[in-house]
Amino acid sequence: MKRPLFTLFVAVAAAIAFTAAASSSNDIIKTFTDRKVQAFNHLVVDKNTGRVYIGAVNRLYQLSPDLDLVISEKTGPEMDSDDCSVLECTSAFSKKLTDNVNKALVIDYTTTRLISCGSLFQGICSVRNLDNISEGAREVREAVVANNATASTVAFIAPGPPNPPVSQVMYVGVTFTLGSPYRSEVPAVSSRSLDKDKMFTIAQTAVTTGTRMFVNSLARERYPITYVYGFASEGFSYFLTTQMRHTGSNQFISKLVRVCHDDENYYSYTEIPMDCISEAQGGRKYNLVQAAYVGKAGSDLASDLGITAQDDVLFGVFSEGDPAIANKPSDLSALCVYPLKAIRRKFMQNIKHCFSGKGQRGLDFISPSLQCVPTVSIYITYTYLRFAHPYGGEAALPLPVLIGRRRDLAMLDPD
Ligand SMILES: *[C@@H]1O[C@H](CO)[C@@H](O)[C@H](O)[C@H]1NC(C)=O
Ligand SMILES: *[C@@H]1O[C@H](CO)[C@@H](O)[C@H](O)[C@H]1NC(C)=O
């Protein structure tokens, strides 16, 4: 493996040098600024029209493909309180003027709508017309995203129940927040319906199951999970996260969460640790993923990784955790590249390992961990390995890295 890794390093380094050169100030054609706004949180581009939408603090923008401002819509601040439920906010609560921080912004191409979710009112979403974001906006009273300025949220649309790949749902990963009596009702990971009649409700529910996963009530206050990126690939949806190595650990690691699209009960919920280790630096571990992107490899990278140019590749920028505050990134970072093929193989190996009766199921922050039991493989099919229990594999992926300062690699952040 030594030589291909070296080649990969050069290929990626060249790509970065090119990006750096391409983004010098001479090459900026157009800019959009609003000095009155605190921060831009998310940006999406309509792949059909080229229109640009920006979710910001207290604002939502619709821009032309040339970045000319078409519409600026005010979304906050408003009187709010953590004690208010999503439906009720009476004068009995001590409310204060609160910013609406955009937590998610996605285009639903099936219905040609813009979905935008903000931190106000327990994290609700609105559905808007892509032609004109101020026309016929519909606000849905359902707690979907994080309800404060800093807690993480990741949302994306991909196939899901009841009838994938025809039916689409919104996959959402949310950090649990303290201080409100209502947050225990918001799942950490869920698939939300995009049907007009049950917009943003959990796509499938039964008494104890459904398309949702909660961190259990004993663990959630001291087991923070940060959702960094989400994507779909070949029948599965994935979330990249940072979390503790296990409950009671003071070490933080990056983990990849996966659920099968064709799973109404999240029985296929599985996690694997993601390692980003620099052999060149004597095994230095970059443990905290900061940003990621799934795309296709160029032909050189594809041939180095032993995949085709059509195969998905996950690019992740990782930081080394600050020695003093375990989940705070330090200034050093690395880029790691993972073919999705290798990721799928790793999930499969882990699941087979547990099916053979070895090790623990893990993930005790969801439900108590059990010994893996030898399982006759009636449920095993080529694409779908399912457990009636969430499963956390132990083995992690080894991979090639590119080292840099954090700001050099920041340009790789797709947001
Ligand atoms: C968008 O819709 C609003 C409300 O109907 C209207 O006042 C505004 O002129 C429209 N803007 C554009 C650019 O079409
Ligand atoms: C948001 O919630 C998290 C978890 O409860 C907390 O750690 C963080 O400080 C909160 N952020 C703000 C800005 O209140």
TrEMBL record:
Gene Ontology cellular component terms for the protein in this record: plasma membrane; semaphorin receptor complex
Annotated keywords: Differentiation, Signal
Gene Ontology molecular function, alphabetical: semaphorin receptor activity
Keyword Thylakoid applies: no
Domain Sema: residue ranges: 13-415
Entry keyword Signal: yes
CDD domains: Sema_plexin_like (cd11236)
Entry-linked InterPro entries: Plexin, Semap_dom, Semap_dom_sf, WD40/YVTN_repeat-like_dom_sf
Any one Gene Ontology BP term: regulation of cell migration
Signal sequence, start to end: 1-21
UniProt xrefs under Pfam families: Sema
Protein name: Sema domain containing protein
Lineage: Eukaryota, Metazoa, Ecdysozoa, Arthropoda, Hexapoda
